[in-house]
Amino acid sequence: MSTVTGSNQSAQTIRPTPFQATVLSIPEDHFVFLGGGRGGGKSFALQLLILRHCDQYRARARVLVTRRRLKSLLQFAEELRGLFRAAYGSGLSYNLNDNVFRLPNGATVQLTHCESNAALQDTVQGMTFSLIAVDEAGEGPELPVIDALALTLRAPGVPLRMILAGNPGGANHSALAERYVTGREPWTPFRFADQTWVYAPSTVDDNPHLPEAYKRNFSVLAHTDPALYRAHRHGDWSAIVGDYFGGCWDRARAVFDHHEVPPDTFGSLRLSIDWGSAAPCAVVLGGKLAYDVRLSDDRVMPKGAWVIYDEHFECDPKNMSRGTGRTPGQIAPSLHEIALRNGTRAAGVIDSAAEARTAGRAEASIADLFREAGMRVSPARKGARVPRFELLKQLMANGEFFVASRCRYWLATVPALPRDSRNPEDVDSSANDHMLDATSYLIAGSAAGRVAVSGFVPMPEGSSRDRRIVLV
To answer: Residue 309 in contact with residue 285, Cβ under 8 Å?
Structure first.
């Protein structure tokens, strides 16, 4: 499709770029992820899809557009108003208070900013849409909010569709890459969550309307942050590195094929568990090398280096930021399987918070339930978060930390973790940091011993009231 025109007599011809024309050629019953570098024309492609949808389905078209922040949403609204005016002339109606466009043909376009599920419910509860467009999806809202938006797609007689647009980076980077980019062939339909999706990437080279000066601005990034340059200039979702491990993590140096490092090269291999039920349950299997290991590409993994050798990640198949709700008894067989295939026993450390008996003193803790399932776990020596993470950064910088390529959830989440804006020395705890926690527990090791608290009994007569006993 080379042009898009409105139905009003005063309409003007609007010509998309070749990238935008390809996006417009995707079948209307396919959901689309417009993911790529900055300046590729994704937002305008989104606006053209909205315009065409309204032009085709007229009064049956009900469109919802979201961005996380109100300020950027208002900018999008101004751009969309200019496009509608070019297509429909003076017949356009726009309510600034409600952020609703009403087109002469009866179509409506509502714009809203959604930062949380509560904001979503206040805005779209009970409403019906035929097309939902989420711009700047990498910045937010969170994926569970975006997924909940899809429940409002139920307009009759119209192909229902959701379109996401976003650049590499942001709070949703790992989840978006895992869903729509990693292992996906651009422009080739694939199935996800019972819907047919298309990954449609673009770069600044796909937008001939931008001046050369804009493209030259990327050259600064090429020197200051090469990974960010590849992500924003070339739309490389695998290049982005989270702020927290920037300058320390080097994928080319640290990732290896586990087939080249047999289990008997380790002094011992242990499991490390960061328990979660509503949140993901993250488990790593790792240890320290007992020998120097030379890889086929001539890299050397030094003796004493820490290695994440295998993993298990319990998450919702549709959202890697959510847990499955499964119990320790249901998870334990998978951990026994990991131990068996790597020639070790199901033993290691667990988040010390899992020792708590929150339901009552006489009931089993999470750690107890793992032990009942045949796993030998001890509470981890957690200490403060920041020193644990700083130690890991030091190991990365010194070339004493490696990760097997089969640990795809580790590689999808840990390198992309951002800093906490309130405490730059810490990781943003709202991010998917469960694999990081499990790794830090492994390196910190187990506590000195298990603490057992007996029931309260009367003190023997004649005993000093200052007498205190702690059983360890």
So the answer is: yes
The tokens describing 25, both together, are 């050629």
- Measure the CA angle with vertex 38, ends 35 and 40; round to 5°: 70
As a whole number of angstroms, the distance between CA 230 and CA 163 comes to: 24
* CA–CA–CA angle 176, 206, 140 (5° rounding): 25
429, two tokens: 């705890």
Q: Give CATH for domain 18-206.
A: 3.40.50.300
- Which helix (H) or strand (E) element contains residue 112? strand 108-113
Encoded tokens for 348: 């290691």
Amino acid letter, 136: E
User: Mean of the pLDDT values across residues 392-405?
Assistant: 94
- Give the whole-angstrom CA distance, residue 89 versus residue 185: 40
Q: How confident is residue 186, by pLDDT bands cut at 50, 70 and 90?
A: very high
The b/e string for 9-47 (b: 16+ C-beta within 10 A; e otherwise) is eeeeebebbebbbbbbebeeebbbbbbbbbbbbbbbbbb
Put simply, whether the predicted model's pTM sits higher than 0.85 gets the answer no
- Pick from 157, 214, 268: which is nearest to 37 by CA? 214
pLDDT digits (tens, 9 = 90+) for 294-309: 999 999 999 999 999 9
Q: What pLDDT was estimated at residue 282?
A: 96
Question: What distance in Å separates the CA atoms of residue 163 and residue 188, rounded to the nearest whole number?
Answer: 16
Domain boundaries, the chain: 18-206, 251-444
Amino acid at 329: G
In the predicted structure, residue 470 carries a pLDDT above the cut 60:
no
- Candidates 3.40.50.2300, 3.10.450.50, 3.40.710.10, 3.30.420.280; CATH matching 251-444: 3.30.420.280
CA angle 434, 345, 276 (to 5 degrees): 20
298, amino acid identity: D
